[in-house]
Amino acid sequence: MSSPPLTVRSLTARPVIVPLERPIRTAVGTIPAAPLVLIDLMTEEGVPGRAYIFGYTPMALAPLVRLLSDMEPQLQRKPAAPVERMRDFTRMFRLLGRQGLVGMALSGIDMALWDAQGRALGVPVARLLGADAAPVPAYDSFGIVDPAADRKALEASLDRGFRAIKIKIGGGDLDRDKTTVAAVRDIIGPDVALMVDYNQSLTAVDAIRRIDALAHCDLAWVEEPVPAEDIRSQARVRAASPIAIQAGENWWSPAEMATAIEAGASDLAMPDLMRIGGITGWLSAMGYADGAGIPVSSHAFVEASAHVLTATPTCHWLEFLDKACMLLTEPATVEHGAVVPRGPGLGMDWDEMAVARYLH
Hints:
This protein is α/β, with parallel strands linked by helices. The chain contains 13 helices and 11 strands.
């Protein structure tokens, strides 16, 4: 597998705000629409590289676009080699650090570079990582639900082939959590995996109490019950929990993942491509998980996550939380409860009419 070397010509970024089919309601707030930055890298050879990042709030869009624009000169006329370019940026930002907007921008660039490499060869990124573009088991990701009002949506997920569902809880007291979980379990039946996510909303004491009360509900995991930065509390909750604890979407580097694993902070791992360092960062992260025997799931970024999970030795679940579907000519699809990585590259092409409609 070889192709002529690629050289970066330009990098552009466009801010969009995309309506969500299901607004994301969490215990700490609601996200009604997805603020995204679309990244377009072009090489001298005419091969594009595409990616997007999620800004969480519209306030982050302008700074992210400006930051990406300022990074363009550091890429121009250099090989479109993702590992080497990330080494360059790591040195550049050693003193500032790579958390926050800097890390988000760099991860987006990394994904675009990998996309370009796959496109140049005409193969999915999964193949570049040494894996087949095989189906990855997926779960449908909901926010806080009202089991009565959202019954049809939950049933529609089952009709689409999902064999796992995640809901967010913690928006009320423990009785509400118990009632919601029991009702959702009744709707989806005993053979569908059910996960819950507290979105970092609890103290360790409250988390232990609530998790213990949900122990009979046959939950696959409880996600981020306490603040992500509080590793000691995470480990305390995990030690007391009768249910597997999931964490990782807020790890800002493979090194942070290694620290969390060493501290015994979770049973499962869920790196986020935009925070962990893009595909290049994910490759290091999955090695840590493999060494510790920890199952790895993805957080958002459906399209790119499908590729990296195929190469992940302890691949677990792909989160189907599709924020970019309205912008793509061919959105990700679920078949028999799984997502198949598309190519070439990451398999994403913009629907430019839709992009124009949602430009911010």
